Amino acid sequence: MKDKNNNSGMTLIVKTVTRLTVGLIMLYGLYITFHGHLTPGGGFAGGVILALSFIHLILAFGKDFVIKKFSEKIAGVFESIGAVLFLTIAVSGFLVGYFFINIYGKGIPFNLFSAGIILPCNLSIMLIVGFGLFCAFLTLLLFISSKE
Amino acid sequence: MSHLPYILCLILFLIGLYAVLVKKNLIKIIIGLGIIDYSLNLFLVLIGYKKQSIFPILSKDTQIQPMVDPLPQALVLTAIVIGLAVTMLMVAIAIRLYEKYETFDITQIRKLKG
Amino acid sequence: MNNIIPLFVIIPLAGAFLNSLLGRFSKLFSDILSNIVCILTTFFSFVILFNLNLSPNNILTYRVGGWVAPIGIMLVVDHLSVLMLLTVNLVALCCCIYSISYMEKYTDKWKYYALFMIMLAGMNGVIITSDIFNMYVFLEIAAIASYALVAFGDESEKLEASFKYLVLGSVASAIILLSIALIYSYVSSLNLADISLTLSNMVDVNKVYFIKFISLLLIVGFGVKSALVPFHSWLPDAHQSAPAPISAMSSGVLIKTLGIYAMVRILFNIFGVGQKILSIIVILGLLSMFVGVILALYQWDYKRLLAYHSISQFGYIILGIGLATPLGILGGLFHLINHSVFKSLLFLTSGATESTLGTRDLRRMGELNKKMPLTTFSALIGSMSISGIPPFNGFWSKLIIIVACIQAKQYFAGFIATIVSFLTLSSFTKVLKYGFYGKSEVDHKNIKEVPDSMVVPMIILSLCCIFMGLLLLPQIRQYFLDNVVNVLQHGTIYATKVFELR
C-alpha cells in the first residue's frame, strides 16, 4: 500500500476531496441525530453515518495514519461512555416515578429542544453505534493485517 | 391479487433459506441469512399499510389525514440493528475460521463428529 | 415493592457497561463488580418470592415509563416467573464465582464478564416482560451474547461449533419474528394480556386454523432454541467446546429460559392450547428422551456425553408439561429446576477436571477420588441425582412424571420414561467408573485439588441437590409449587389478572 515516497493510501486527488468532505459527512450524521424527534432518522441512522465518516478516512489515508491519532482503545472508551450515559438517563427517571419516564419537560412542539428525553437518548445511541461500528471495523482490519 | 406483496416476501424468504441449506461456501451462507432478515423486515413494514394513506410524520403544515401504521416501522428499526449485530459476529468468526482451516468450504471444516 | 421489578434488568446492564468502561484497567475491579451484581440479583429474587404471597391476585405489575397498558410495556411477575428468576440467578451466581479462577488462563477477563452480564440481563428480561416484541428483543440479546461466549478462546473447535450454533439460532429467531408479525397483523396489539383478551372475544371463522398455524411456527422456533429432537444438532458441539461455566449456564438456564419458558408462556397463557398441539408436544418429548440417551451411550468425551443427556432430560420436562394434568405440570416444572441444578453441577465438575488434567476423554481420567476428593464427591451427587436415586431431587421429579403418565392413561409414555431412566443410570455408572473411581491408562502425577473459588459453587449446588426434595412437603408446597401449577393449569386467567391491576 506504500509507494516509493512512503506515502500510504490512495492518490492525491482522493486525499484532497476527502479533506473537504469528511467534515460534511460527520455534520450530516449529527444533523440526523439531533432532529430525530422531528424528521425520520434518530440515533441508529446518525450513528451509522458517523461511523462511515471515520471509515472514509481510513480508506483514503491508509490504516497507519489514522491509528496513530485514533486507536481502537479510544473508540472503545467513547462507546462505553455512550452506554453508561444511556443507562443514567433511564435510571434518572427512577427518582421521579417510573423507570424511563420523561422528566425533561415537553416544550413547544416542532422546536429543536422539545419532546423530553428523546434528544439525549438519541445522542447516546449515536455514540454507541458510531464508535462501536468503527471499533469493530478496526479490530477486523488489524487482525487481517497482523497475519500477513 | 391484493396479497401479491406478501407472497413475494415469502418467496424471498425461501430463496434465503435455500442459500443457507444448500450452499457450501461460508460467505454464501452469511449472505443467505442476510436475505432472510431483509425479507422479514419488509414483511413487517408491509403489514402496516392502509389504502389511500400518507406517511406517518407530523410537521407544521400537514393536514390530518389517514396515516399508515407507524408501530411496525419502529419494530423494524430494532430488527435491522439486531441483524447487523449478528452479521458482524458471523463475519468475524468466518475470518478466524479461514485462518485456522485455510478454506471456506464447510465440508472440510468438520473436526467435531459423532 | 413493585419498584424492584425493573432492577433485575438494570443491575446486570449497569454491571456490563461499567465493566466495559473501567474493567480494562484493573482485573480485580471486574471480578468484584460482577460478583456483587450476581449477589444483588439473587437477593432481590428471594425478596420477591417472599412478597408474592402477600400481594393481591398473586401478581406484581409495573408500568415502564408510566404508560398504561396496552399503550405501554408492562412487567409482570407471577409464580412461574419467580420460579425461573430464582433458578437463573442462583445458577448465575455459582458460575460467576466459579469463573474467578477458571478464566485466569484467558486474557481480557473484562470482555468475558461484560458478555456474561449482558446474557444475564437478557434472560431476566425474557422472564419478567409481558410484551411480545420486548420478549423477542431480550431473547436476541441473550442469544447474541451466548454466541460470542461459546467462541471465547482460540481453538478451532470453538469457532466451528459457534458458527453452527449461530446459523441455526438465527434461522430460529427469524421464524419467531415471522410469527410475531403474523400475530400483530391479526390482533393489532403487542401486549400479551391484550392479545389473549382480544383473541377470546374475536368471532372469526378462520381463528382456529390461524392459532394452530402460529402455534406450530412457535414450536419450531422455540424448539430449535431449546434443542428438542429433531432440532438438536447444534447442542453437543456448542456445549462441548465452550468454556465450562458457559456450558453450565447455557445448558442449565439459557435453553430453558429462551426455549421452554417462552413457549409455555405463549402457548398456555395466551393461546390456550388444544388437544392436538399437546399431543405434538408429548411426541416431541418422547423422541427427545429416547434419541438423546441412545446417542449418549457411546460417547467417550465427558462434556459431549453431558450435552446429550441434556437433550434427553428435556424430553422429560416437555413430556410432563405436555400431559396438562396438575400432577404432570408439577412434575415437569419441578424437573426443570432440578435439572438446572444438577446439570450445572456436572458441567462445573467437568471444567474442574479439564483444568487440572488437560483432557476431557473419560479413558484418560481416573483415580481421582484420592487426589481430588471434593470434585469427586460433587460428581457423585450429580450423577446420583440425574439417574434418579432416592433421596436426591431427580428421583422425586421423575417419579411424579411417571405416575402422571400412568394416571393420564398414556402407558407407552410411562414405559419409555422408565427405560430411559435405566439407560441414564447405566451411562453415569460408566462415567463414574472410568472417570473418577477406576484405574486410568495414563499415570497422573502431582495433581491436586482445584482452587477454592471453584470448589465453593460445587458444594453449594450439591447441597441444593440433597435438600431440594423438601420442596414437595405439603406445608411448603402450598406456598410455592401449587401456585406455580395453578398458573399453567388455568392458563387464560393470566390476562384477566393482569388487566385488573394495570
Describe the structure using short key phrases.
heterotrimer; A: 148 residues; 5 helices; B: 114 residues; Helix Hairpins; 63% helix
Greatest interface and its participating residue counts: B-C, 33 and 32 residues
β-strand number of chain C: 2
Number of strands of chain A: 0
Question: What profile does the largest beta sheet of chain A have?
Answer: none
Taken from the alpha-carbon principal axes, the silhouette of chain A is: elongated
For the sheet with most strands of chain C, the description reads: 2 strands, antiparallel
Cα Rg of chain C: 22 Å
Multimeric status of the protein: heterotrimer
Quick one: overall form of chain C?
A: globular
Extract low-pLDDT stretches of chain A.
Answer: none
Order of helices and strands of chain A: HHHHH
Q: What is the CA-based Rg of chain A, rounded?
A: 19 Å
Mean of all residue-level pLDDT scores of chain C? 86
Class of secondary structure makeup of chain C:
mainly alpha
Distance between the termini of chain A: 13 Å
Q: Count up the helices of chain A.
A: 5
Low-confidence stretches of chain C: none
Query: How would you write the strand order of the largest sheet of chain C?
Result: 1-2
- Measured by DSSP, the beta-strand proportion of chain A falls in under 5%
